[in-house]
Design a protein that fits this description.
With 142 residues, the protein is α+β, with helices and mostly antiparallel strands. The protein is 32% helix and 20% strand. The chain has five helices and six strands, in the order ααβααββββαβ. The chain has helices spanning 9-15, 22-33, 46-55, 62-74, 118-121; strands at residues 43-44, 79-84, 87-91, 97-102, 107-112, 137-140. The chain is globular. The chain binds zinc ion.
């Protein structure tokens, strides 16, 4: 589902238990606008979001952007992809998929979930448990 239309966003936030303040709606719009076109990069850093939200909205502080992204990730509205301690991407695509990270360019791309056989990665789970979530990040360098 696409939420490039800003009028849809307050309802989406409420569905995740988030009070849709004006600033939160603007930040969500920046994140979800990128899911419209699969060719554009929809993995944004907090600084990317900060720049884009302030391009057409009157001043959202860095602290507000960081706190809002954390809230969005905690409520599963978006997904945080931790490439390293200092490199976190925020992904509006919460459907199961994996990632390819290019160390040279610093870009992150999707790998469709069905291209990674997770049963090969977790063959011996303890009895009675099942994988709830599994994120693969393949780090490459040209
Ligand atoms: Zn992704």
């Amino acid at each position: 589902m696409s939420y490039g239309n800003k009028s849809e966003i307050p309802r989406l936030l409420r569905e995740h238990g988030i009070q849709p303040t004006t600033q939160r709606v603007e930040i969500a719009h920046v994140l979800f606008a990128h899911t419209e076109d699969p060719e554009t990069d929809h993995h944004l850093s907090a600084d990317d979001v900060l720049v884009q939200v302030n391009a057409d909205f009157n001043r959202v502080s860095k602290a507000t952007v960081y706190n809002t992204l954390r809230l969005f990730a905690e409520t599963d509205l978006i997904r945080a992809v931790y490439v390293s301690a200092s490199k976190v991407f925020y992904d509006a695509n919460t459907a199961p998929h994996h990632h390819l990270y290019d160390e040279a360019s610093g870009s992150l791309r999707d790998i469709p979930a069905d291209e990674v056989d997770v049963t090969q990665l977790v063959p011996h789970l303890p009895e009675g448990v099942s994988p709830e979530d599994l994120d693969v990040i393949v780090r490459v360098r040209a």
